[in-house]
Amino acid sequence: MPSKILFVDDEPSFEKLIRRQFRKQIRAKEFEFIFASNGVEALEILQGDRRHIDLTITDINMPQMSGLTLLEKVHDLDPNIKTVVLSAYSDMKNIRTAMNQGAFDFLTKPIDFQDLEITINRALEQVKQIRQNEEQLRDAQTQLIQNEKMSALGELVAGVAHEINNPVGFIASNIEIAEDYIKNLIEVVKFYQQNFPDPGAAILAKLEEVDLQYIINDMPEVIDSMREGTDRICTLSNSLRTFSRSDTRAKIAFNIHEGIDSTLLILKHRLKGNEKRPPIEIKKEYSNLSPVVCYPGQLNQVFMNLIANAIEALDEASEGRNWEEILENPNIITIRTYAREDNERVVISISDNGPGMSEAVMEQIFEYLYTTKPVGTGTGLGLYISHQIVVETHGGNLYCVSEPHRGAEFIIEIPMERSQPLV
Ligand SMILES: Nc1ncnc2c1ncn2[C@@H]1O[C@H](COP(=O)(O)OP(=O)(O)OP(=O)(O)O)[C@@H](O)[C@H]1O
Ligand SMILES: [Mg+2]
Predict the structure, then answer these.
(1) Which residue's C-alpha comes closest to atom 27 of ligand 1?
(2) Which 3 state secondary structure label does DSSP give 403?
């Protein structure tokens, strides 16, 4: 990307002169010059394209808006844009004012182009440094938010899972014992029946009252359903623990499907039907994948962000549809996994049949803090963080295919690391 330099001077011949003088840098795409003939015009360009102008070079004496006023406004707009002022040597007073107002440097007219080039390079170097620092700061901030969010959630989830595990353990092991006791009791009763076939009217009446035969027949089913209940709680608590794995130090081999399933479990309450729409249907098309060497906790976070976005998109789409319309054309999230033909990458595709996105939105979705959701709903961090995790941490790819009214598909590609031993 060339550095963008805005040159402001009411003398039209300057444009040609500058273009000639810096033709090499322009051709090599190091510099791009934009010309304005007064402060008002310059300000319009800056407001429209603020994030991309790196340096302003401005004359001081110009009609409509002087260089000094422009300098002030540029500073208000973005203090990171450097401004170099140009003026006649005799105009020292204005030059001093400009320097006091925060100009980066000044040059005197007639312009010494060699000096100009040095000044431009020096200013751009500083701008680059500032931008880099800003980026680093932003990354550090995101990392902090991400860690904070994840560790709070992870700790809570892991804590709950742990607390559930013990009592479920008592129940599960006591069911076995209870089953054994009950079997013994039933045997004893049967033994009595065989040895005392005529127990007398009172006992017969009692047997009738409690419906002994029914109890004996039904008991195995009662025990089985208790066992199934505890099995389900165990699966849940294992899933919670899988989800909250925070292995950040080293990559480990991880079953991607377990990660997705545990994420779905955590999002279960948001998938359920509510007063506005029936439940969201989840279609899973998992292929037979070997474990992937990755940071499981972080990948789960990506699944979480993408599935949550799909739910939010479907919720939004459901607002404008009535119950019958939704039932006819139900909300579906499809999760597919497969390995690329060359077996070098695994692909996880998460798609929804929600409202989709325009091209203009799609261009920005991975940007820091970009959100189309109301204040308090979205922070615009989900996809930014997910992109970082997939692309930077895992050397993979994350992209989106979508069209308005055609739903959205998010595709995660993670390279297979076969060289590491599978744990
Ligand atoms: N499945 C989708 N369908 C339609 N638009 C989507 C979908 N996923 C993301 N988007 C668009 O991308 C934007 C950015 O998503 P991102 O997850 O980064 O932020 P967010 O969901 O708005 O907020 P956060 O995730 O931080 O709570 C969303 O505001 C939305 O406009
Ligand atoms: Mg989101």
Answers:
(1) 378
(2) coil
Nearest CA to ligand 1 atom 23: 378
Q: For residues 369 and 384, what is the distance between their CA atoms, to the nearest angstrom?
A: 8
pLDDT at residue 109, rounded to an integer: 87
How far is the C-alpha of 409 from the C-alpha of 332, rounded, in Å? Answer: 12
Confidence of residue 375 (pLDDT cuts 50, 70, 90): confident
Q: Do 7 and 33 meet the contact criterion of CB atoms below 8 Å apart?
A: yes
**Which band of pLDDT confidence, cut at 50, 70 and 90, is reported for residue 89?**
confident
- For tokens 């182009």, the residue is 113
Tokens of 193: 């029946």
Residue 52 is classified by DSSP as G
As given in the structure block, the two tokens for residue 212 are: 């002994």
Which class in CATH covers the domain with range 3-111?
alpha beta
Which of these, 421, 396, 393, lies nearest to 411 by C-alpha position?
396
Q: Can you tell me which atom of ligand 1 is nearest the CA of 383? A: 18
- Ligand 1 binding pocket, CB closer than 6 Å: 305, 309-310, 313, 352, 354-357, 361, 365, 370-373, 378-384, 408
Fold for the domain defined by 252-415: Heat Shock Protein 90 (3.30.565)
Cα 358 to Cα 368: distance, rounded to the nearest angstrom? 18
